Design the sequence.
DNA sequence: TTAATTTATGCAACCGATTGCAAAAAAAAA
DNA sequence: TTTTTTTTTGCAATCGGTTGCATAAATTAA
């Protein structure tokens, strides 16, 4: 095993012995317990410092059965949005004395299940989850419910009596965006969605469809494309559109990655945006301002979502907010209009 | 405190009692110890399942003084590169029975120091670090050296006798890229670098400078711009270039974000890439293939770097590789030539 | 059938902080 | 000075696996 030239670890017993007091006093002193005289505390801290003491989290966890740790499971870390979300969570958590354990499901239910087990074994006090693409149910979180470990979904959520949800109003955002496209003169509007089992995509689809409906446009089956919203899917979508005899005059894609890829492939095939077709995305990724023309999209602030999720969880953990734990918290979004949907007159 | 309607936790003692055997046997059985008869193991596992037993990590950690946890500190999570790195680390770690604790320094030394303390208190068995932008020294890792906790730097590294480094050959990559620009006919080549205290930027600068030198081009002080390589810095850089009386005919920027922003701002000011000026970046971010023209850059595979870093660390932890722990491991990179540097004839 | 091996299991002392309760010390009241 | 009250501090059991060493059980050899 490991090179074991580490010297013996210093414990509160060592400090107690050196100071001729009891370990109990040291334990209390170190955590600033009011029953300990200031003078004693000072001596304890000084001695701890002098001996190079480090607190043993495990001994405490073993005893208290709490870890002051929050588990986070997200599909992927590599988006500005997720990074922002996590930064927000970290801020709130650290201020409240909690640590974060982060893991990514890489969009598969299988990995998500493994992550859940790991989190469970690491005895996180609570869990913040945004569901993977392929997740079909949430039985893998049952153990958390059984043990009364609070679980909060954010962004990609699941309706469950035990779980508050933190989301944006995907329905409304899609409705607004679609209405805007109609207002720009579009009549044949396609929608590229992700897995409709995920709330974010089903809600966006519904918002889109209802906007059509409310504007007297009959939704046609062929206008809906469901795929994984990857860049490759964007290219496929463009090819599909290109091959249509009756082409759409606008496409609303449920994320920016796919929208951008689609737009570029359309352009390569001589279909220009926004001249020939309007394109809009969702998320406001950095690429949206790089692609030409710049992409119209929906922005929602990640830090806010992360903060809200962490705050809600910590309130639950501290026993506050039991009286009024909201089932769903909706954060605000904003439509960002750029050149990709500005029909030239 | 928390709603405490959780039932009593099941322990190996409960399993032992139910099966009329000793806790020691249960403990060994659960971890598949060869000294336990298969039949006994089967009974143990079945009983554990039946009683809803969950392993207590803390009791083990307390006893073994190992956590099977690896700490990871990175500047930011929100890049494809970092996400890839972490995916690679996770793969190798999980296969070897280790968990990852990930935190981001958000490019500041202050946060990095805090993260280091957290990791230390969480008793990670080892640490994988890529340094923040503003980090000026590594005293905050001294406690790890003192306790003989292995620390490996990757990408943004620091030379230290105790720490293996996992990097790419930034010098060579920059040298090759610059040579290529010269070959394309460029003679007045600017370089936009990040903080020169970070190896990645100083090495890229040196590679650039030596390539000039070796091609008989005299490096001029004004050709070097040092900034934070953000998008805003890219715009500033473009404005700076625009204002020059004697403009460069090529710019080599040390990352893609900044390169792209710079390119776009140049374009807005009527300076066209690659007609008027060649632009190259570094990293091969997704935006490099979205911007027009597509950006020439240097690719290096994150997963490989993550895997290598984790492997090296785990070898150290397991006591292998002590005889030949390399001080520096260099991974391969590749020059990716795209339109932004193709001078039209 | 008995002795020599091999295999399987148990004993019990750890790891280090926590905390209810009791007792000692110090301060205030009588 | 004695008694009462308030502060401080200590005792000791507890959390739940782990593991060296000893012993019992099962197998094999004699």
Sequence:
């Amino acid at each position: 095993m490991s090179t074991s030239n580490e010297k013996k670890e210093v414990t509160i017993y060592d400090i107690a012995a050196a100071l001729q007091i009891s370990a109990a006093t040291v334990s209390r002193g170190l955590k600033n317990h009011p029953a300990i005289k200031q003078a004693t505390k000072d001596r304890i801290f000084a001695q701890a410092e002098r001996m190079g003491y480090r607190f043993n989290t495990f001994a405490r966890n073993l005893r208290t059965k709490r870890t002051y740790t929050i588990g986070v499971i997200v599909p992927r870390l590599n988006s500005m949005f997720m990074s922002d979300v996590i930064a927000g969570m970290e801020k709130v958590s650290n201020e409240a004395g909690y640590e974060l354990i982060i893991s990514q499901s890489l969009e598969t239910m299988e990995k998500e299940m493994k992550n859940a087990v790991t989190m469970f074994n690491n005895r996180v006090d609570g869990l913040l989850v945004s569901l993977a693409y392929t997740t079909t149910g949430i039985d893998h979180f049952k153990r958390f419910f059984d043990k009364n470990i609070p679980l909060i979904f954010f962004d990609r959520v699941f309706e469950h009596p035990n779980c508050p949800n933190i989301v944006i109003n995907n329905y409304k955002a899609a409705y607004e965006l679609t209405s805007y496209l109609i207002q720009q003169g579009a009549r044949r509007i396609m929608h590229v969605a992700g897995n409709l089992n995920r709330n974010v995509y089903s809600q966006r689809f519904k918002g889109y469809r209802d906007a059509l409906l409310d504007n007297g446009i009959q939704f046609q089956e062929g206008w809906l494309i469901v795929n994984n919203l990857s860049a490759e899917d964007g290219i496929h979508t463009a090819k599909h559109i290109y091959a249509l005899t009756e082409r759409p005059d606008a496409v609303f894609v449920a994320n920016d990655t796919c929208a951008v890829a689609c737009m570029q492939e359309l352009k390569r095939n001589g279909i220009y945006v926004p001249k020939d077709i309007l394109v809009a995305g969702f998320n406001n990724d950095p690429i949206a301002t790089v692609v030409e023309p710049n992409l119209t999209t929906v922005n929602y602030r990640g830090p806010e979502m992360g903060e809200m999720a962490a705050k809600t969880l910590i309130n639950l953990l501290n026993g506050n907010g039991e009286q009024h734990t909201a089932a769903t918290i909706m954060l605000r979004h904003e439509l960002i209009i750029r050149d990709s949907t500005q029909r030239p007159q």
